[in-house]
């Protein structure tokens, strides 16, 4: 009899403990029970992937964002050693690496300015193909007049609602219409959203390097000089 009473007492204790655990998880109060080993709240994995910035490669440098706006030199000197052909290859590869979660546009400069799109474009298959065709058709000519093109490129980026935008300016020479100081002032003045402006310099003269370094530093971006 004593043994039977002991078993009944132990079962009663276990039952009471399980009821207490249910109550702590909201079970006895009518709340929704959830597995204790699963986190509550937070975004789903699909939303995390959609919001995550992507990384592109351009001339060997890596840039992370969800909006990419290029300003490209197509002056005469870009045609002297095949630099424009290399630029076209680099752009085609970069555009191909974009996903539809990102936006882009392209501006090119010499003595004047040409623009792929005055508005940010979604990087879908059709727009990327159009961007690649536009870049492929560029022809080298004229001087290195960056200021107006840089301002237009920044203005296009200002219209994008993406949170991790990047402006990329590539050149092989120091601007001369107007000069470095005024060019930096004009582009920086247009950049009221403080979007990072990254500069890529594919030459070796000290004046051009200094200018591109200063332009990037004034706009929270990076300066990159590809090897070779």
Report what the structure shows:
The protein has 228 residues and is of the alpha/beta class. It has 2 domains: 1-36; 56-224, von Willebrand factor, type A domain (Rossmann fold), CATH 3.40.50. Helix content is 41%, strand content 19%. The strands form 2 sheets. Strands 3, 4, 5, 6, 7, 8 and 9 form a 7-stranded mixed β-sheet that branches. The protein has a two-stranded antiparallel ribbon with strand order 1-2. The longest helix is centred in the N-terminal third of the chain and has 23 residues, at 2-24. The protein starts with a helix and ends with a strand.
Strand content: 15-25%
Overall structural domain count: 2
Task: Output the structural class.
Answer: alpha/beta
Outline the low-pLDDT stretches.
1-48
CATH class of the largest domain: Alpha Beta
Order of helices and strands: HHEEEHEEEHHEHEHE
How would you state the average pLDDT, rounded?
84
Layout of secondary structure:
Blueprint: H1 2-24, H2 45-51, E1 54-58, E2 61-65, E3 67-73, H3 83-96, E4 103-109, E5 113-115, E6 121-122, H4 125-136, H5 146-159, E7 165-171, H6 180-190, E8 197-201, H7 206-218, E9 223-224
Parallel strand pairs: 3-4, 3-7, 7-8, 8-9
Antiparallel strand pairs: 1-2, 4-5, 4-6
Helix pairs in contact: 3-4, 5-6, 6-7
Give a short summary of the structure:
The chain is of the alpha/beta class and 228 residues long.
List keywords for this structure.
seven-stranded mixed β-sheet; 228 residues; two-stranded antiparallel sheet; disordered N terminus; Rossmann fold; globular; alpha/beta
